[in-house]
Amino acid sequence: MKSLVLAEKPSVARDIARVMGSTQTNRNYIDGPKYVVTWALGHLVTNAQPEQYDNKYKEWDLNVLPIIPPQMKTVVIKQTSAQFNAVKRLIERDDINEIIIATDSGREGELVARLILDKCKLKNKTLKRLWISSVTNQAIKQGFNTLRNAKEFEPLYQAALARSEADWLVGINATRALTKKYDAQLSCGRVQTPTLAMIAHRQTQIQSFKSTPFYGLDLAIEGTTFKWLNANKQSSVKNPEIVKEIAQKLKGQPVTITAVKNSEKKQFPGALYDLTTLQQDAYKRFKYSAKETLKIMQTLYETHKVLTYPRTDSRFISEDVVPTLKERLTAARKSKFGEQIKTVLRQPIKANSGFVNNAKVSDHHAIIPTEEAPNYLKLGARELAIYNLVVEKFVSVLMPATVYTEQTIEATIKDERFTAKHKIVTQLGFKALYEENTVTKALAFKQGERYTTYKLAQSEGHTSPPAYLNEGTLLKAMENPTTIFQIEDSKMAKTLKETGGIGTVATRADIIEKLYALNVVEQVNGGLRATAKGRQLLDLAPEKLKTPDLTADWEDKLARIEKGKYAKSQFIQEMKDYTQQVITDIKKSEKKYKHDNLTATKCPTCGKFMLDIKTKNGKMLVCQDPECNTKKNVVRTTNARCPECKKKLQLRGKGSTAVYSCVCGHRESQEAMNKRMDKNKKSRVSKGDVAKYMKAQKQEDEPFNNPLAEALAKLKLSDKD
């Protein structure tokens, strides 16, 4: 008898098959003496569409809403039905007596597998679960040695199913109701609408902010700047005349150092990465979008197998991972942090509560390197950047704390006080990863010293509004909405913090991308702003759907279902009641919607006027009729670079008449672009030539950063061998 292994993707299925000895490759599966491995191609089964319940729902009609089926149905996805049928036949094989779920180890992965298995109606088959955090050979073998009973994960499946059905009930009904009520493509949902509300709220704060000037005094002595303090220990005042009078009074008077206070302090490295904090840092350092970072992480996890499972909300590792730390460090020794890794490996590795805590690990531990060393020739520039980011964080928690002296210096001129504060680093510790200097020299100020040579200058500044949210800070706000909204209910604020805010680490990137796609959010100079359509949508959407506390309540209940402490049936009934109220409110509303981006261009499909839409990569025309939804590109930002200023070129038109233009004024035709690209290709070094050279030069004890090899690795390569 054999076991059928159901993976989520073909790439993971191939890895499992290779490790577990299955070698007979077929179109839809890989057979072996003990294991038959197949895959799901993502989702093979999904929620039925409204028209699949009743043909009357095929046309969007406000009068038939809400659509609340007595029993939710699932259907096989037509595009991947061939793979579903293949999986079904494998399940029904007489020589298969055990099913091993090997989809991603999380809520959504569980949903992918269980929907398929429920549709196949298992009979007399044992159900097991493979639960691993990386897809290295070692992790796969260990996982198969410790397979778990699938019944343990039944509550996880119920939570995933509850989330899926609730999103269907609220999303389908609210979107159809708003779209038909206002004859515009308006979509809302349990996470996307509060997220849009946060962006708009910050935007309103900035637009209503009134900047006010403030004034102070700066005292400069031997390169050190002291700030004046008034009687209330404030360094600035609103009245410039006060500062002017004090400056005049102190002119020519000596300075006395009245106090020098030294405090020894330590700074410890932050916790390890979960997906959200990794996405935040990737945006901050490299301007990678949340979606892009997740995509890179999936490749590093599935294809290169150098990082652990990305969709985690834990920033700690469990104690059972500690024995593998040395091996993981060794695997990363040829990274850019090789010298620091060597230093750490010379001493016994010390695990501490700063990054090891079983109680703070949920389904998966923090994102860390695996025991498998990367093949740097196969890593793209962006993959290498994210890998190094994770290695940097991983190595930092294994290094000593940074030790510094916080020195506070107080000076007086007559009866006016001035103060300066410095950090004097005495031991770099983990900051050696980020800083080239060694130890900061101590300042020379001593109590009782007097100075007659100094510079006293009046300073002026203006209060600044908060910054627009960007993709990094939005992720942080989604994780903790209390940083944007003032939530008066302390219990609800606590719930938001404990449940991880709105959305999950696995869904936030998709939510942000969806807001772009719906044209309710745009990016201006890196900052996120609600479009006119987005602001109108918030005005039209039901009030409760815009608040983070409602979304947090949903996430709290889903988490309780996941733990077996709340009934899925009760949650779904609440969602049905809520959906009924939402549709009633929309139908009763007397508000209006106005297209502010209507053009004189008629839709080639239905004849209605088209809308001018800004997208993340340019502009396009979209039919105003949501049911027509004809689209036409106008301007698109390409990956081609301007030969003058190196910025990305914009493309207008298509075919031989297309024109590329740049903000610097450069323009070129499609013909000129083709010639330039052909010329560049001829001057490139092939990947094959570089690979052969690197292989010939590589020796086990040779440092990775061989100057010639590194120079070659940085060349722009063609795909031609």
Automatic annotation (TrEMBL):
Coiled-coil segments: none
GO biological process, one term: DNA repair
Enzyme Commission identifier(s): 5.6.2.1
Keywords, in A-Z order: DNA-binding, Isomerase, Magnesium, Metal-binding, Topoisomerase
Record: residues binding Mg(2+): E8, D104
Site (Interaction with DNA): W60, W168, R176, R311
Cofactor(s) needed by this chain: Mg(2+)
A single GO cellular-component term on record: cytoplasmic replication fork
Listed InterPro entries: Topo_IA, Topo_IA_2, Topo_IA_AS, Topo_IA_cen, Topo_IA_cen_sub1, Topo_IA_cen_sub2, Topo_IA_cen_sub3, Topo_IA_core_domain
Entry protein name: DNA topoisomerase 3
Organism this protein belongs to: Brochothrix thermosphacta
